[in-house]
Design brief:
This is Site-specific integrase. By secondary structure, the protein is mainly alpha-helical. It has helices spanning 11-22, 29-45, 56-67, 72-92, 120-129, 138-148, 152-156, 201-210, 230-244, 251-264, 269-276, 281-287, 289-308; strands at residues 163-164, 169-172, 175-177, 184-186, 195-198. Helix 1 (11-22) packs antiparallel against helix 2 (29-45). The protein is globular and about 70 Å long.
C-alpha cells in the first residue's frame, strides 16, 4: 500500500538525521565537516521550511538566498550536498517529486583569483627576502614548502626524525589536523601521499642545527596546545609578495610553484606526481595542463629543428 502522506518534518532536521544515518562514520572527517557546514547554512536560511513544502520554487529560492553571499562553485557544492539527501528522500517516499530538478545555480561575482605560481625569478626574490634566523619560524616553513612542494598539513606534521641528513630525504607519513581545537597527527591524504622527498644538501644543512633540542616525536612548526591557521601564513606570504612587487600567491601556491618549475626544467610528469604525492599522473596532468601544453609546443619546435638538420 502506498503512503497517503509525505514527510512534514522540518527540512534542516531531516537533513541532519540523514547526515547522522548515512555519512557519520562513513566518510573522512574533513568531508563530514562539509556536510555539517551545509546543515548549519540550511538551518540559518530556511528554519521554517518543511519537507512537504519543498518544490521546485521553494528549493530554487533556497539556492538563490545562498547564492547572494557565495560564489557559483560554492553554491553548486551546497546544492550537491542537499540533493544527495533529497534523492534518498524520494526513494523512501518522503517526497513526491524531485524539487532539485532543473535547478538554476547562481552566485556572486568571483573575487580576483591569486596567481597559482611564481616564476623562477620571483621565487628567488621571495627566498632572498625571507628572514632565516637561528630559530624555527614561518619564514623557514615557507622555504621548506618552496623546496619540497609539501602540502600545508604535511609540512606542519614534520618531526625531527623525518629529516634524514645522510640520504638527504624528508619522510612524509602523516599530516597535522590543524582545524581541530587541539591539533594532532592524522593520516596523510591518501596512501600515495606517504613518500620520501629528496632535497638539496643546503636545505638539510640549514635545518640540522634548527632541529637540535626539539623532541624527536614532536612537530617542528606547531604545538598541540596552540592552534595555527593557514590564513596566518597566507597573510605573511601576501605581505612579502606585496613588498617585493611580485604576484601574490597562497602557501598552496608555493606547492604549485615547486611543481611548475620542475616541469619547466624537464622533470618527467611521473616523477613530479610521485614527489607531490598524487595518486596518479592524471591528477598532475589535469592540474598543470597549461604548462604541459607549453612544453609540448617547445618539444615540437625541437623536433622540427632536428629534422631540418637531417
Amino acid at each position: 500500500m502506498s503512503k497517503s502522506y509525505y514527510s512534514t518534518k522540518l527540512f534542516y532536521k531531516y537533513y541532519l538525521n540523514w547526515i547522522k544515518l548515512y555519512k557519520d562514520g562513513a566518510v573522512r572527517q574533513v568531508t563530514l565537516d562539509k556536510y555539517y557546514l551545509t546543515y548549519r547554512k540550511l538551518r540559518a536560511l530556511a528554519p521554517e521550511l518543511h519537507m512537504n513544502e519543498l518544490n521546485r520554487q521553494t528549493y530554487q529560492k533556497l539556492l538563490n538566498d545562498y547564492a547572494t553571499t557565495h560564489e557559483r562553485q560554492t553554491t553548486l557544492d551546497f546544492h550537491h550536498h542537499l540533493r544527495a539527501a533529497l534523492v534518498d528522500a524520494i526513494d523512501m517516499g518522503d517526497l513526491r517529486h524531485d524539487p532539485t530538478r532543473r535547478a538554476i545555480i547562481k552566485g556572486r561575482t568571483p573575487k580576483a583569483k591569486k596567481s597559482k605560481f611564481l616564476n623562477l625569478y620571483e621565487l628567488r626574490l621571495l627566498i632572498n627576502h625571507l628572514e632565516l634566523g637561528p630559530n624555527i619560524s614561518w619564514d623557514w616553513f615557507i622555504l621548506l614548502i618552496a623546496k619540497t612542494g609539501l602540502r600545508f598539513a604535511e609540512a606542519l606534521a614534520l618531526t625531527p626524525t623525518d629529516f634524514n641528513y645522510e640520504k638527504q630525504v624528508i619522510t612524509v607519513n602523516k599530516s597535522w589536523n590543524y582545524k581541530a581545537p587541539t591539533g594532532h597527527f592524522q593520516p596523510t591524504k591518501n596512501e600515495s601521499s606517504n613518500r620520501s622527498v629528496t632535497v638539496d644538501w643546503q636545505l638539510m644543512s640549514q635545518f640540522k642545527p634548527l632541529l637540535q633540542g626539539i623532541d624527536s616525536k614532536q612537530p617542528v612548526f606547531v604545538s598541540p596546545d596552540k592552534r595555527v591557521f593557514n590564513s596566518t601564513i597566507n597573510q605573511l606570504l601576501e605581505r612579502y609578495c606585496t613588498e617585493l612587487g611580485i604576484h601574490i600567491i597562497s602557501i598552496h601556491g608555493l606547492r604549485h610553484t615547486h611543481a611548475s618549475l620542475l616541469l619547466y626544467e624537464g622533470v618527467s610528469i611521473a616523477s613530479v606526481a610521485r614527489r607531490l604525492g598524487h595518486a596518479n599522473t592524471t591528477t598532475t596532468q589535469e592540474t598543470y595542463l597549461h604548462i604541459i601544453e607549453e612544453l609540448r609546443n617547445k618539444d615540437n619546435d625541437k623536433i622540427l629543428h632536428h629534422l631540418s638538420q637531417l
